[in-house]
Amino acid sequence: MTNDNDLNDDIDKLFQPTQAEKNIQFETLYKSMLPHLNNNYSELVAAHLLLILKLEGIVGDKITPKDMDMIEDMKEKISEDKELAKEVYRLIKAIKGN
User: Fold this and answer.
1) What number is the average pLDDT over the span 44-72?
2) What is the number of structural domains in the chain?
């Protein structure tokens, strides 16, 4: 016998997007944001991080100062790690189509 919670969990899992679907959603949204961003690496990284955090449900509809601090901290950590910075730049270029 299954209880309602098990059924609800199964239904929730059924409608959870796969990682491939999340990647497509991310790329589509990021591409639509690009025309509104300057071609500034820092701004592109911030938008990249913000979109990931938003799609993962870590940040809400309204971006708080705490959210912005988290994004700035993440940007700093990326810039301090040369390999990670290269990888993020490569991803941004690939999405942009460069």
Assistant:
1) 92
2) 1
